[in-house]
């Protein structure tokens, strides 16, 4: 310390040492903040990755479910078409018979009931 009258002043060396200490302390703080930011970023990245994987799995499940439903609909449609085709064939057979055969078939079926 330098002294001038009743006043004491720090020497340039003391000032430089204080600046170095402050600068080093601040650099350490910034380094710690950067490390925490990296950790937070990594955790965030892992979280987003997990969410994306979850969404992908859900999307695949929905696609599979829809494909199964579509297959079921197609199968029901085919079954209905076969049933209708069979009914139409019976109707055509009845219509191609002579009227007397149709009446006798109807009356014999009435007797069975």
- Classify the helix fraction into a percent range: over 70%
Largest sheet: spatial strand order: 1-2
Shape: rod-shaped
Count of helical stretches: 2
- Percentage of residues in strands: 5-15%
What structural class results from the helix and strand content?
Answer: mainly alpha
pLDDT < 50 runs, ≥5 residues:
none
Mean pLDDT figure: 88
> What's the number of structural domains?
1
Distance between the termini: 127 Å
Q: What is the helix/strand order?
A: EEHH
Number of strands: 2
Keywords:
5% strand, 113 residues, two-stranded antiparallel sheet, single chain, 88% helix, rod-shaped, mainly alpha
Describe this structure in words.
This protein has about 110 residues and is mainly alpha-helical. The protein has one domain (about 1-110). It contains two helices and two strands. Strands 1-2 form a two-stranded antiparallel sheet. Strand 1 and strand 2 (about 5-10) form a beta hairpin. About 0% of the residues are buried. The mean pLDDT is about 90.
